[in-house]
Amino acid sequence: MFHDILSTSQYLPYTTLALGSALALFLYPHSLTGTLSSNSRTVVKRNAALLPIYSLMLGLLALLGYMAIAAHVSLPKAYGSNAAVPALISQMFPSWFAGFAFAAISIGALVPAAIMSIAAANLFTRNIYRVYFRPHYSDREESNVAKITSLVVKFGALLFILFVPTTYIINFQLLGGILIIQTLPAVFLGLYSNWFNRGALIVGWAAGMISGIWMFIAANYSSVYMFNIGGQQFGIYSAVSSLVLNLVLVVIFTPIFRAAGMTSGKDNTRPADYEEEIPEKAEPLPEAMG
Length: 290
What we know:
Blueprint (H helix, E strand, L loop, with lengths): L1 H4 L5 H15 L3 H8 L4 H30 L13 H9 L2 H39 L5 H25 L5 H12 L3 H4 L10 H21 L5 E6 L2 E6 H22 L31
Antiparallel strand pairs: 1-2
């Protein structure tokens, strides 16, 4: 399949981009918020099992672009190919139905934006505002601060859309993946092992952040950085290469910090937090046994 769509030089960039995006997907705050607010691990398992259906629906939406090409849709000059689907709807359906479709597109854009802003507001309120500014605030104050923060995030996102050139939008999205994936050693690997020293995790995180941003800027605001090794160039998604540096430093500095007497901190989790409770089957009543 790669041979039909990509050139040989694009194999490695595409593969590392897919790997880095998959690793970063569940590290975003809105994903963690949805996971941690679930009623039980059964809900998480069920949603994870049904998630491929969502990806399949995204693939079906992508087919609308091919439909627009087949229908020879005239694209507006102001938006270009970004308006292919709305232009297809406007050309193929009556105005009343197109209005419903445009409203559905608007709602589809607003829902994930609302979830992300709520997640960002909760993170700020509970991890920054409460810890460093108002440790003993009331529930009402927490709710008010979260609402204001959510509104500020939405307004900032609107300014970003209006004033940032559209050519940078995708690359800034990928930059978000470069930044968020640096939390993988602490957040994801920390679920399976407490071997890592917290000081080493901070060093690795800082090195990954700095190197990822530097590669993004050095590549002219592109998420793929070209490495020159042995006279040959290899394009790698900056999130993957910076994550490798992050992990290497964590592994190196963990024994060094332990030898220097730096503690890893207190693990507040219990074995019961990682064990699933199996519901006991009810004993059949004597009458039911006949």
